[in-house]
Design goal:
563 residues; alpha+beta; 5-stranded mixed beta sheet; 16 helices; binds adenosine-5'-diphosphate
Length: 563
C-alpha cells in the first residue's frame, strides 16, 4: 500500500489511447467505409486477370469501373468532409453504383455473385444514420440501375455471351439489397439508441463519481478503501495527511505497515497483526478503536472504524477504514480529568479540617439547638468529603493494582458486616452465601471498594422491606486463565430499563428515578468499580428489571490480572 494513491480509479492502461470508429474524424470514417469496396474490387480485378485475362483486355469496362472506384477512394480520403454538410459524403456511395455498373457488367462473365458489390454502398447508406427511408430508396435505385444497366441496348460488352440473358435475370437483386439495407438500417438505429442510453448512464455515473469524490475529498475524516488483495483503492486527502504524520522521522513516503502506530496510551507499539488495516483485512469490523499515530510532539490520536465489503457471492471483497482525528477531544478529556483531580484535591484538605473542628466542637457541652446545627453541618461536610474522595478516585489511574493473595470470602464477610447496620436501619434483610475460603490474587483495597460500592448501591436503591443477597463462588477452569471467582450482589430494588443499564458505567450517570427521588450519590461509583474490576482482568455484568430488582455480577481470574 503506497502513500500517493489517487482518490479515483483510472481506466486500465490498455483501455487508454485506443479509439473506436465513432471517434475518428469524418474524413477517416468516409475513407474507411469506402475501403472494403476498393479492396473487394481489387480482388475481383486480380481474379479476372488470372482466370480470363481476355475479358479484361477486350473491354474497357473493368478498367473504367475499377478506375472509378479508385478515384472515389481518393476523393473520400482528401475531401475535408467535416467542413461540408454531413450528408454530402453520400456522394461517394452513390457514385460507387456508377463505378460498380461497368465493373459488374464485364466481370460477371468470369465470376459469380458480382452483384454483391452493390451491397457495399447499400450498407453504407443504410448505416449512415441520415434519412433512413431516403437512404434505402437510393440503395434500391442504385442497385437496380447498376444491375439493369448492361441490359440496355448497346451497353453489353460481349454480345455473344449475352444471348441467353434477359432483363428479368437480375430482377431480385435490388429487392434483396433493399431487405439487407433495411436490416442494416434497423440494426444501426437500435445500436444508436443503445449508444445514447449508454452515454447517458455513463454521464450519470461520471457525475455521481465526481460528487462522491468531492464529498470524500472535503471530508475531515480520513478514508481508506482497500480491496480483498490488500491494494489501496481509495485514499482521501485527510487520510494522506494522517499517513504523513505516521511516517518514521526523515521519511516522505512509506507503506502502511511502516507507519508508527501505538495503542491509546501513545507508547505501546501495536503488534503487526493488530494494526487497524491488518485487522480490517482479516474481515474484522469495529467502531471507535482509539490509537495514536506518530511520535513526540506531532503524535495524534485517532478513532478508527472498519466495515468489511462482500461481493454478490458473499466473499470478502475489501474493507473501508475510517480514521477520525480525536486528539483535541482526548486533550479536553485529559484536561477535564486533571482539573477535577486538582480541584478535588484542593477541597479535601480544608474539608478534613472543617470536619475535624466540627468533631471537636461536638465534644463540648452545647446548647441543643446549636448541637443540631452543628450535626447538620457535620453530616453535609461528610457528604462533601465522600463526593470529593469519589472524584479523586475516578481521576486516579485505576488501571494499576497491587495484587497479593487475598481470601475473597473473608473480604466479602467484612463488607457484609459493615453494611449490616445500614441495611437493618433501611428495613432490608441482608443474606450472604459464602464459601469458607476463596483465595485469589487481587488488590484487597480495590476489591474491598468494589464490594462496598455494590453493597451500598443495593441498600440505597432498594425500598424498605426488600432483601439483598450476596454470594461468592469459584468457577473452575472457565477459560485459558484457569479458575475464576464470581461475586454476585442481588437486590429486590428499583431495577432499571435496558437503556439505563447501557449507560450505567458512564461517569456521573444516575437513573431518572434515583435523581427524582433525590437519593444522594455522585454517579461515579460504578465507573470506578468497573475500572477496578477490569484492572484485575475481570468483568462486571448487570441483570436488571425495572421495578423487580438488579443483580451485579463481578468475575475475576483467581490467578490474578497477569494471567
Ligand atoms: P451513585 O450510586 O453515587 O449514584 P453509581 O455509579 O454507583 O453512583 O450508580 C450509578 C447509578 O446507577 C445510580 O445513581 C442508580 O441510578 C443506578 N444504580 C446503581 N446500582 C443500582 C441498583 N442496585 N439498583 C438500581 N439502580 C442502581
Amino acid at each position: 500500500m503506497s502513500f500517493a494513491t489517487p482518490t479515483t480509479l483510472l481506466p486500465p492502461q490498455e483501455a487508454r489511447g485506443r479509439r473506436h470508429f465513432g471517434q475518428f474524424s469524418l474524413r477517416r470514417r468516409v475513407l474507411l467505409s469506402q475501403l472494403p469496396l476498393t479492396i473487394s474490387a481489387a480482388l475481383v480485378v486480380i481474379a479476372v486477370m488470372v482466370i480470363d485475362p481476355g475479358v479484361a483486355l477486350e473491354s474497357p469496362y473493368i478498367a473504367i469501373g475499377f478506375g472509378g472506384i479508385l478515384f472515389l477512394t481518393l476523393l473520400a480520403g482528401v475531401v475535408p468532409w467535416h467542413r461540408l454538410p454531413p450528408v454530402l459524403y453520400w456522394i461517394i456511395p452513390l457514385l460507387d453504383f456508377v463505378a460498380i455498373a461497368p465493373l459488374w457488367t464485364a466481370s460477371r462473365y468470369v465470376l459469380d455473385g458480382m452483384s454483391l458489390l452493390t451491397a457495399f454502398p447499400v450498407f453504407w447508406l443504410a448505416w449512415s444514420g441520415f434519412y433512413p427511408v431516403l437512404a434505402l430508396s437510393l440503395g434500391f435505385i442504385g442497385t437496380a440501375a447498376a444491375t439493369w444497366w448492361p441490359y440496355l441496348p448497346g451497353t453489353a460488352p460481349y454480345t455473344d455471351e449475352l444471348i441467353e440473358s434477359n432483363l428479368t435475370r437480375p430482377v431480385m437483386v435490388p429487392f434483396m439489397m433493399l431487405s439487407l439495407g433495411a436490416a442494416a438500417s434497423i440494426l444501426t438505429r437500435s445500436m444508436e439508441k443503445q449508444r445514447l442510453e449508454l452515454r447517458a448512464s455513463l454521464e450519470k455515473s461520471k457525475s455521481q463519481n465526481r460528487l462522491l469524490q468531492a464529498v470524500v475529498e472535503t471530508s475531515d475524516v480520513g478514508i481508506l478503501v482497500v480491496d480483498g488483495q490488500g491494494h489501496d483503492v481509495l485514499m482521501n486527502q485527510a487520510q494522506r495527511r494522517t499517513h504523513f504524520i505516521g511516517l518514521p522521522p526523515g521519511r516522505n513516503d512509506g507503506a502502511e505497515h511502516e507507519l508508527l502506530l501505538f495503542e491509546a496510551d501513545g507508547l505501546t507499539p501495536i503488534l503487526p497483526n493488530e494494526r487497524p488495516v491488518a485487522q480490517a483485512l482479516q474481515g474484522r469490523e469495529y467502531r471507535g478503536r482509539i490509537i495514536a499515530i506518530g511520535t513526540d510532539g506531532s503524535q495524534q490520536h485517532l478513532s478508527v472504524s472498519a466495515s468489511a465489503m462482500y461481493d454478490d457471492d458473499g466473499e470478502f471483497d475489501g474493507t473501508v477504514v475510517v480514521f477520525q482525528n480525536v486528539t483535541d477531544l482526548m486533550d479536553a478529556i485529559q484536561t477535564r480529568e486533571r482539573f477535577v483531580a486538582e480541584v478535588s484535591h484542593e477541597f479535601r484538605t480544608p474539608l478534613t479540617s472543617i470536619i475535624g473542628y466540627l468533631d471537636l466542637a461536638m465534644e463540648e457541652d452545647l446548647d441543643p439547638t446549636l448541637r443540631q446545627f452543628l450535626t447538620t453541618s457535620q453530616r453535609n461536610a461528610e457528604r462533601l468529603l465522600t463526593l470529593v474522595t469519589s472524584l479523586l478516585d475516578a481521576a486516579a489511574d485505576s488501571s494499576k493494582v497491587t495484587v497479593q493473595t487475598v481470601d475473597l470470602s473473608r473480604l466479602t464477610r467484612y463488607s457484609v458486616e459493615s453494611a449490616e447496620v445500614r441495611a437493618r436501619n433501611s428495613g432490608l434483610t441482608l443474606a450472604s452465601d459464602l464459601p469458607d475460603q476463596l483465595l485469589a490474587k487481587a488488590d484487597p483495597v480495590k476489591m474491598g471498594q468494589v464490594l462496598d460500592n455494590l453493597l451500598s448501591n443495593a441498600i440505597k436503591y432498594t425500598p424498605a422491606g426488600g432483601s439483598i443477597t450476596i454470594s461468592l463462588r469459584c468457577l473452575p477452569g472457565m477459560d485459558e486463565k484457569g479458575d475464576w471467582a464470581e461475586l454476585a450482589v442481588e437486590d429486590t430494588g428499583f431495577g432499571m430499563t435496558d437503556q439505563e443499564r447501557a449507560k450505567l458505567f458512564t461517569n456521573f450517570y444516575r437513573t431518572e428515578h434515583v435523581r427524582k427521588a433525590a437519593i444522594p450519590g455522585t454517579g461515579l461509583g460504578l465507573a470506578i468499580t468497573q475500572s477496578y474490576v477490569r484492572a484485575h482482568g475481570g468483568e462486571i455484568l448487570v441483570n436488571s428489571e425495572k421495578g423487580v430488582g438488579s443483580t451485579f455480577t463481578v468475575r475475576i481470574p483467581i490467578a490474578g490480572p497477569a494471567s
